[in-house]
TrEMBL record:
Gene3D superfamilies in the cross-refs: Aldolase class I
GO molecular function ontology, one term from the record: metal ion binding
Protein's GO biological process: ketone body biosynthetic process; L-leucine catabolic process
Protein name in UniProt: hydroxymethylglutaryl-CoA lyase
Family: Belongs to the HMG-CoA lyase family.
SUPFAM superfamilies according to UniProt: Aldolase (SSF51569)
Membrane-spanning segments: none
Keywords, comma-separated and alphabetical: Lyase, Metal-binding
Metabolic or biological pathway: Metabolic intermediate metabolism; (S)-3-hydroxy-3-methylglutaryl-CoA degradation; acetoacetate from (S)-3-hydroxy-3-methylglutaryl-CoA: step 1/1
InterPro entries reported in the protein's UniProt record: Aldolase_TIM, HMGL, PYR_CT
EC number in record: 4.1.3.4
Pyruvate carboxyltransferase domain mapped to chain residues: 5-272
Keyword Transcription in record: no
């Protein structure tokens, strides 16, 4: 049987958060309902952050209330602090994610905290989520390059990843936030991270600004990673990472890993339909 690769769909959150047009809630719900029939086990659909920081995500509770929940799919939400977790629990998110960074410049710009302060803030979030029986995922941003601080040392990534894992995150998603990673820098970063977190608990989250995301997935597969975040239609970016373009497109990752002999369990026709919807949302119609 073919080896399996899981694609974690992040389009409705990472893909849409950066859009300047306020996308109507019903359009977001329609996209998620389509994605729900594609075969994903996990879809990130919401973000309980300050609406002043990311206005596009202000309707997250309405999105979670409006979607048709498919059996076997976990609907995930970002939660930067306890207030965010309360919102996510009230809206019945199935899992949540805390999001830190390996560089001080991005940590400050994205969540207004130093790395050390962010880790202090995350500890009670993971504790409260555990008490509520909700799995927590951990993101590390800027795993090779930071828009503010430049190149990031692999050891800095490993330190933050290890702390999030010790805190109880079941998986650590490694973000090439501005898509500047190369197969060489991604491989060096993974070598350091794999020393402190098992490969089975790591995911690659690669933006495609430098058009190297698929190559970076290739070196990650060779390092034993089998989970990759992607967004249908290649939507996205991060409002606090200037120049960051979209996440690598889900359909491109699907085709790439399938050609390498892996199975994703995803329905390619549904992906194509969702990608079309996502692109139409970006262009405003
Ligand atoms: P702060 O200003 O330091 O915090 O922001 P604060 O506690 O002083 O609160 C400021 C205001 O936000 C207050 O409102 C709070 O009530 C409110 P005001 O009194 O001014 O009216 N507030 C909240 N509102 C709703 N939900 C909450 C919440 N918390 C506080 N949970 C904070 C700190 C973390 C809140 C802020 O910096 C923030 O929201 N940042 C989020 C930035 C963000 O969402 N970035 C994009 C996601 S990360 C990403 O895309 C990268 C990733 O894809 C991986 C990769 O690619 O690398 C994951
Ligand atoms: Mg991202």
């Amino acid at each position: 049987m073919a080896d399996r690769v899981e694609i974690f769909e992040v389009g409705p959150r990472d893909g849409l958060q950066n859009e300047t047009r306020q996308i109507p809630t019903v359009e977001k719900i329609a996209l998620i309902d389509t994605l729900s029939s594609a075969g994903f086990a996990r879809i990130e659909v919401a973000s309980f952050v300050s609406p002043k920081w990311v206005p596009q995500m202000a309707d997250s509770a309405d999105v979670l209330a409006g979607i048709r929940r498919a059996p076997g799919v976990r609907y995930a939400a970002l939660t930067p602090n306890l207030r965010g977790l309360e919102g996510a629990l009230a809206a019945k998110a199935d899992e949540v994610a805390i999001f830190g960074a390996a560089s001080e410049g991005f940590s400050k710009a994205n969540i207004n905290a130093t790395i050390a302060e962010s880790l202090e803030r995350f500890a009670p979030v993971t504790e409260a989520a555990r008490a509520a029986g909700i799995p927590v995922r951990g993101y590390v941003s800027c795993v090779t390059d930071c828009p503010y601080d430049g190149p990031v040392a692999p050891g800095d990534v490993a330190r933050v990843a290890a702390r999030l894992f010790e805190m109880g995150c079941y998986e650590i998603s490694l973000g090439d936030t501005i898509g500047q990673g190369t197969p060489e820098t991604i491989d060096a970063m993974l070598a350091a991270v794999c020393d402190v977190v098992p490969q089975s608990a790591l995911a690659g989250h690669y933006h495609d600004t430098g058009a190297r995301a698929l190559d970076n997935i290739g070196v990650s597969l060779a390092r034993g990673l089998r989970v990759f975040d992607a967004a249908v239609g290649g939507l996205g970016g991060c409002p606090y990472a200037p120049g960051a373009s979209g996440n690598v497109a889900t359909e491109a990752v699907h085709d790439h890993v399938q050609a390498m002999g892996y199975e994703t369990g995803l329905d390619r026709e549904v992906l194509a339909r969702a990608a079309q919807m996502a692109r139409a949302m970006r262009s405003g119609g």
